[in-house]
Design brief:
Length: 245
């Protein structure tokens, strides 16, 4: 690959539960074989109805206690939603770090209240981001007649670096990682630890076009020459190697 184009899909309307997200995108984009579509998790979650109204949530004692220890002093009901979306709490002092049912280690289990249409409304991560990506890919093949890869992305913080970046949660039609261990470097020496998180790199590049306030939740990455297939689960670090678990 010598050149990569990033093309924002413009004019998407507010996505609501039950919307055909692939149809909304296909009506506003032209695809070529080999393209990779990066779609923000939030619009996928909205289309799939992964939305919670805080007025329907009652905070338990643990959620109330945790909320009082966090710097942001969140609504205890939001903390309860995070706990409901998690299999274990890894840190609850200053910030809330949990492991989700998917195996992600992240702040607040991916529960978010920005750009969701109301202070009392939250979005949750898709139940199965890989399945979401696969459904979008199949539907786009039918609608657009092109075989494209799909990444469902979200922004994650990084404990050893400042700021948030887009990462891949769901992956379909492209590799998530490329394992170069055992292959020679430029000097002919074997690589021992080099595993490229290519789906995360594509997601991060698309994040430059998405922005956080530009309302461009879908981006086409064109010019990639990726072979192989993988899933977002390939990017989850094994528990024995995880610094938080």
């Amino acid at each position: 690959m010598k050149r990569l184009e990033l093309l924002g899909v413009e004019g998407l309307p507010e996505v609501r539960p039950g919307d055909d997200l692939a149809e909304l995108i296909a009506a506003r984009a032209r695809f070529e074989a080999g393209d990779v579509l990066v779609v923000a998790q939030k619009v996928v979650s909205k289309a799939e109805g992964r939305i919670v109204d805080l007025n329907d949530v009652t905070a338990g004692a643990e959620a109330v206690q945790i909320a009082g220890r966090l710097v942001a002093k969140p609504d205890p009901r939001m903390v309860q939603v995070v706990l409901d979306e998690s299999v274990r709490v890894l840190r609850s002092e200053r910030v809330l770090i949990t492991e989700t049912r998917h195996g992600y280690v992240s702040a607040n289990a991916g529960v978010d209240h920005s750009n969701v249409g109301g202070r009392d409304t939250l979005t949750l991560l898709p139940l199965d981001p890989d399945a979401s990506a696969a459904r979008l890919r199949a539907r786009l093949r039918d609608l657009a007649g092109a075989d494209v890869g799909v990444i469902v992305s979200d922004t994650f913080g990084r404990p050893w670096r400042l700021g948030i970046v887009n990462v891949a949660l769901g992956v379909a039609g492209l590799p998530a990682v490329i394992d170069l261990r055992g292959t020679p470097d430029d000097d002919g020496n074997p690589l021992h630890a080099t595993v490229l998180a290519v789906a995360d790199e594509v997601a991060a590049s698309a994040g430059l076009v998405m922005g956080k306030t530009d309302r461009t939740p879908a981006v086409i990455a064109r010019g990639l020459r990726l072979t192989g297939r993988g899933t977002g689960r390939d990017l989850i670090r094994p528990q024995a190697e995880d610094l938080f678990r």
